[in-house]
Amino acid sequence: MAQQWDDALSKARFEFRWDDQFNLALDPDTARDYHDETLPATGAKVAHFCSMCGPKFCAMKITQDVREYARDQGLTVETAFDKGMEEKSKEFREAGSKIYQKA
Question: Membrane spanning segments where (predicted)?
Answer without folding.
Answer: none
